[in-house]
Inverse folding.
């Protein structure tokens, strides 16, 4: 766990040490504020539902529609934050079992390339998702809110995660290019 926390700090410092990436720090702060707002909305709506059910014995089905959108946005904002920190859940089974540095380096290459490919596929999927939603708009049943609000969270998450993963991949490539120089010194 400590190693994972240390890696997260290393990747955060990556954004600090590169002057061209410092603007992303403000972007991350905005994402964190949005996550706090969505979390507060979830909490407030859930409390309201409980109070109305308990004291007034009524159902507030329209509130569930707000919960849906807040939850989707919170989920993808959290995924963006995890991508920035490089703290997604992962199984480090090979790192524990295999001790050969060359094999571990090959495994890391495969993971990095696969991550980029999957994020590009996710972006293409979410862009097509939005285009299909524009062609055939859908609305919630009670409040008639457009489902596009939730779909935009998917696209936003795909773009943001690809940007962060791309920066991490570039840093990985840069470190590999300069790895031999460090070993010589």
């Amino acid at each position: 766990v400590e190693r994972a926390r240390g890696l997260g700090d290393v990747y955060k410092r990556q954004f600090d040490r590169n002057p061209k990436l410092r603007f992303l720090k403000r972007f991350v702060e905005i994402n964190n504020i949005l996550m706090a707002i969505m979390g507060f909305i979830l909490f407030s709506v859930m409390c309201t539902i409980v109070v109305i059910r308990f004291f007034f014995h009524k159902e507030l089905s329209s509130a569930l529609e707000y919960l849906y959108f807040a939850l989707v946005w919170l989920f993808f904002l959290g995924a963006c934050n995890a991508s920035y920190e490089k703290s997604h859940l992962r199984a480090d089974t090979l790192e524990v079992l295999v001790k050969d540095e060359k094999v571990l380096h090959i495994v890391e290459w495969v993971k990095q390339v696969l991550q980029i490919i999957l994020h590009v596929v996710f972006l293409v999927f979410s862009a097509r998702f939005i285009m299909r939603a524009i062609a055939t708009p859908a609305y919630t049943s009670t409040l008639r809110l457009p489902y596009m609000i939730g779909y935009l969270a998917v696209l936003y998450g795909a773009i943001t995660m690809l940007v962060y993963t791309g920066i991490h991949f570039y840093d990985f490539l840069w470190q590999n290019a300069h790895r031999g120089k460090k070993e010589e010194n």
Notes: Residues 101-135 form the longest helix (35 residues). The two ends are 31 Å apart (CA to CA). The chain has a mean pLDDT of 84.
